[in-house]
Amino acid sequence: MAASETLALDVRRLRAEFPVLTRQVGPGVPLIYLDSAATSQKPRAVIQAMSSFYEKHNSNIHRGIHALAEEATEAYEAARARVAQFVHAGDPRSLIFTRNTTEAINLVAHTWARMALGPGDMILLTEMEHHSNLVPWQMLAAEKGLVLEFVPVTDAGLLDLDVYSSLLSRGPRLVAFSHMSNVLGTINPVGQMTAAAHAAGAKVLIDAAQSVPHLPVDVEDLEVDFMAFSGHKMCGPTGVGVLYGRLELLEAMPPFLGGGDMIKRVHLRSFVANDVPHKFEAGTPAIAEAIGLGAAVDFLTSVGMPAVRQAEETLVGYALDRLAEVPGVRVLGPEAEQRGGVASFTFEGIHPHDIAQLLDRQGIAVRAGHHCAMPLHERYGVPATTRASFYLYNTTEEIDSLIAGLYKVKEIFN
Ligand code: 7TS
Questions:
Q1: Is 235 a catalytic site residue?
Q2: Residue 230 CA: which ligand 1 atom is closest?
Q3: Helices in 145-218 by DSSP H: which ranges?
Q4: Where are the domains of the chain?
Q5: Which of 357, 361, 363, 330 shows the shortest CA–CA distance to 344?
Q6: Does the CB atom of residue 208 touch ligand 1 within 6 A?
Q7: Is any ligand 1 atom within 6 A of the Cβ of residue 14?
Q8: May I ask the CATH class of domain 47-302?
């Protein structure tokens, strides 16, 4: 197909951008990194942007009037603008730098939700949430007497949209769910679900930790109210994440943390909060990391997000086919068209930790455990899974190695 030709990634060239991918994890054992859902590897451009900041421009931001302070401030704000553009947020002020997705969701819980919600109000979540999109709401529910409800997941790994509709008719004030599951890989129909939630009078928060790195995401087209994601899963550094919020909501929200930078004026007994987004960025932020994230979105933009998505759909489709050949392997979640680059599976009679350890000896990095989604694993009646997750630098040959690795694991256990 012509479209796939134009979108095809030059994986060999891309891999050369990621220094870590050339290393060996044992004598003659090259690294096969299949754990990008936990964190992605970093291209040279990101590493260089950060070291260049420290070598040439290091300063605090929004404070000094000296040359370095102005350069640092400009670079930090330019990064905000580039990340905003990456997710199609029209106004960079609607983007708040946080530490990660977890902090971004907690920010909404502590500010908008604490202000707007009261006893008996309902928050609608789903059974496929990462703990980051469960625990903050459980904590707030306990504090404020809120009611939590959950959209169930079908056996096929999809949200049950009929039950979603009937739960919406009970008038939740907030619907918060992941765009893409970090375990099942399921890509949820955010636009459709958001329109239905808005029609029911709810605000919508999207956990986009797994989607923004892997799919084209247009936050204004999706019309969500809040969206959270992490820099480290999208070729950027750890220590920086993002909360997108609709500007009028952010402006009406009280601050999150108190301290420097988030104020206009402080008196001994009171303060006047700064404008958005600074109101939500108390203290010295992760300056070099934000700049690194700016370089990461430049990198991803140059590759092209539609091409990233297409490559991952091909990879995960290939992985599903190959995993289906291995006797005793059961993959959770939907078909490739409805999933991102994630394949979590059980392997009859073998514990995921043993699988991960034996694969590690072959240089293959996967994650084993509950992947911070214990309720979802309970739903499928398994305590843990082994997860292989893919990104733009992975190849079908690496998936072949994974399959060969699994046969070796089986041999050892038989
Ligand atoms: N939401 C989803 C859907 C995630 O996959 C993760 C991280 C988070 C939230 C939290 O992101 P953080 O950057 O704040 O930690 N998921 C994973 C994972 O699947 N394996 O390690 C981290």
A1: no
A2: 13
A3: 161-168, 190-199
A4: 4-30+304-413, 47-302
A5: 330
A6: no
A7: no
A8: alpha beta
Query: 4-30+304-413, what's its fold?
Result: Aspartate Aminotransferase, domain 1 (3.90.1150)
CA distance 204 to 124: 10
List per-residue pLDDT tens for the chain, 414 residues long. 344 445 789 999 999 999 999 999 999 999 999 999 999 999 999 999 999 999 999 999 988 899 999 999 999 999 999 999 999 999 999 999 999 999 999 999 999 999 999 999 999 999 999 999 999 999 999 999 999 999 999 999 999 999 999 999 999 999 999 999 999 999 999 999 999 999 999 999 999 999 999 999 999 999 999 999 999 999 999 999 999 999 999 999 999 999 999 999 999 999 999 999 999 999 999 999 999 999 999 999 999 999 999 999 999 999 999 999 999 999 999 999 999 999 999 999 999 999 999 999 999 999 999 999 999 999 999 999 999 999 999 999 999 999 999 999 999 997
Beta bridge partners of 331: 345
Of 247, 372, 382, 403, which residue is the catalytic one?
Answer: 372
Contact yes or no for 262/279 (Cβ under 8 A): yes
Question: Minimal CA–CA distance to 53: which of 278, 285, 217?
Answer: 285
